[in-house]
Design a protein that fits this description.
The longest helix is centred in the last third of the chain and has 26 residues, at about 375-400. By secondary structure, the protein is of the alpha/beta class. Among the domains are: about 45-175, Rossmann fold (3-Layer(aba) Sandwich); about 195-350, Rossmann fold, CATH 3.40.50.720. Strands 9-8-7-6-10-11-12 form a seven-stranded mixed beta sheet. The protein starts with 16 loop residues before the first helix and ends with a helix. The protein has 14 helices and twelve strands. Bound molecules: nicotinamide-adenine-dinucleotide.
Length: about 425
Amino acid sequence: MVVAYNAASAAQQTNNPFDTALSQYDRAVHYLDLPAGVIEFLRYPRREFSVNFPVKRDDGRIEMFTGYRVHHNTVLGPSKGGIRYSLAVDLDEVRALAMWMTWKCALAGIPYGGAKGGVVVDPKTLSPRELEALTRRYAAELIPLMSPHSDIPAPDMGTNPQVMAWIMDTYSMTVGYSVPAVVTGKPLNIGGSQGRNEATGRGVIICMVEALKRWGNVRPEDIRLVVQGFGNVGANAASYAHSLGFKIVGISDITGGVYNANGLDVPLMRNFVAEHGDLNGYAGGDIVTNDELLTLPCDVLIPAAMEGQITGKNAAQIQARMIVEGANGPTTPDGDDILNERGIYVVPDILANGGGVVVSYFEWVQDLQAFFWDAEEVYRQLQRAMVRSYYATESVAEEYNVDMRTASQILAIRRVADAVITRGIYP
Ligand code: NAD
C-alpha cells in the first residue's frame, strides 16, 4: 500500500517542507496538460530508505543514530542529492529536498534524478573520530542504493568535502577498487573538481546579476545585500558578490547576525569564522537577531541557511525588493503569496542554487573520464549553465504569466513528465 500524499494545502498552515514541496508542485503542474496518472506518479518518492545504526563514542558507549536516503525520481538518470547532518532532519524534510533535487536537475538540463539523505545528528557534538565512524557506518548502510550509476551523494548542511572523502573511501573499500565518481564535492586530491566548493554560492550571484538587469543599468556598489547563513552557500555567495563590488550590509549564522549600512568586510568575517568556528563575537557591525536580519533595509535578500525562513508571519515586513534563494525551500507558500502580492521578485531555489549540482555533474563527468578541467573551464561552463536556466525560466514565466518559482517548476516538471511519457510505464 502506498501513502496518499493529499495534504499539499496543509503547507498553508504548517511549516512542513514536504507540504511546501507538494504545494509548489500542485501550483505548477496544473498549467501542464498531462495525464492524471503522470501527475500522481511525480508526487511520490520512488524509494525511501531509513536506517538505524550504532556508533561507538570515544568514551566506549554505543549510541544509536537514525539516517535516511530518499530517491524521489530517477527517470532522467541516476539520482543525485546531498547528505545533511542536522538535528532537524526527518523523513519529510528529506522527501522535500529529494523532490526539489528532481526539479533542480531537470531545470539545469543535467541527466540526473533527485535524491537526498540525512542523519539526525549535530555534527558539532562529535569528535573527528566519531564523525568519521558515523559517516562510514551510514555510507556502509547506503551501499545497496549508492553507485556512480545509481545514486551519487554530495555535501549539504553539516557535511563537507572530508565527509565525502570518507564516503568515497568506504564505498571503494567495499567494492575493492577506487571509485571517485560515487560521490561529488570531494577534496581535489582524490578526484574533486575545481570550483565545486564555491559553485553554489557563485551560481546564486550569477543568477542575481542576471535578475538585476530587470532594474536597468545598476552599479554593484549601489546594491545592498543581506545574506542569511554563512556556511558553504552563504559565505561563497557573499565573497563572490563582494569581489564583484556589491555592498553586503547584513550577514548571519546560527549564532545571530551583524548589520553595517556601510558594508561588511566579508574576507575578514570569513577569517573570523575560520578562527572561531562561527560569527559569535564578530564586532564589525550592529548585532541583530536572525529574525531582524530578514527584515533589514536592503535591495536583495539571500536566504542561504535553511527551509521555512520567509513565511506568512514575516513576509509583509521584508524590505528587500528581490529575493535570491540560496537555501532549499526558504520560503513557504503563504510567504510566497505575500511576496508576490507585494511585487517582490523571487529567484527560486531550484534555479538560484543549481550551481552546486551543475558543478557536481562536471565533477562526476571528470571522474568517469579521468580527465580534469581547470577552474577557468569550470567557471565558464557554470556561468553558461546558470544563465541558460535563468532565461529559460524567465521565458516560461512570460509565456504562462506566472512568478519565477511557478515557472521554474513548470519547466522542470514538463521535462521529467516528457521523459516519463517517452520511456513509458514499466512493465
Ligand atoms: P552549511 O552547513 O555549510 O552552512 C549553513 C549555515 O547556515 C551556517 O552558517 C549555519 O550557522 C547557518 N544556519 C543554520 N541554521 C540557521 C538559522 N536558523 N538561522 C541562521 N543561520 C543558520 O550549509 P550549506 O551547504 O551552506 O547549505 C545551506 C543551504 O543551502 C541549505 O538549505 C542547503 O540545502 C542549501 N544548498 C546547499 C548546497 C551546497 O552545495 N552545499 C547546494 C544547494 C543548496
